[in-house]
Design goal:
The chain has 122 residues and is mainly α. It has one domain (7-121). The protein contains five helices and no strands. It has helices at 7-15, 18-38, 46-71, 77-90, 97-117. Helix 3 (46-71) runs antiparallel to helix 4 (77-90) and helix 4 runs antiparallel to helix 5. The longest helix has 26 residues, at 46-71. The protein is flat, with a radius of gyration of 17 Å. 14% of the residues are buried.
């Protein structure tokens, strides 16, 4: 089968894990959302998106650290960031208190399931 990818792209993909590729893609989607929000092309403003992103990233890091310590399991930072960016991209960036509570519950459930499912592997 002929190689249809340019050499630089093929080399990049050979050196990069799929976690990293997914993370770059999600970060690109987030940057696009930020640009669209800056130009008021989305139903929320850029400030809400940035503040919501910081909040979700902080919750994800904290919950992951707690579960990794509790289960004495290694933690993959790319996995935490992927989960955080997925939540950032699917949850309305409203700063309403119920939305923040909902975000915490969602991440705790997703992190808990990861650590409980793989608890026997460590």
């Amino acid at each position: 089968m002929p190689n249809i990818l340019p050499k630089f792209l093929d080399d990049f993909l050979n050196k990069t894990t799929m976690y990293r590729v997914v993370l770059y893609y999600l970060m690109t989607l987030w940057a696009a959302a930020l640009i669209l929000a800056i130009f008021s092309l989305l139903p929320f403003n850029a400030k809400d998106l940035v503040l919501s992103s910081i909040f979700i990233l902080a919750i994800c890091w904290a919950v992951n650290a707690i579960f990794a310590y509790t289960f004495k399991a290694p933690s993959n930072p790319e996995s935490v960031l992927i989960t955080a960016f997925i939540l950032i991209l699917i949850i309305d960036p409203s700063l309403h208190i119920l939305n923040r509570l909902y975000t915490r519950i969602l991440y705790i459930q997703s992190a808990k399931s990861f650590f409980i499912i793989f608890e026997d592997d460590y």
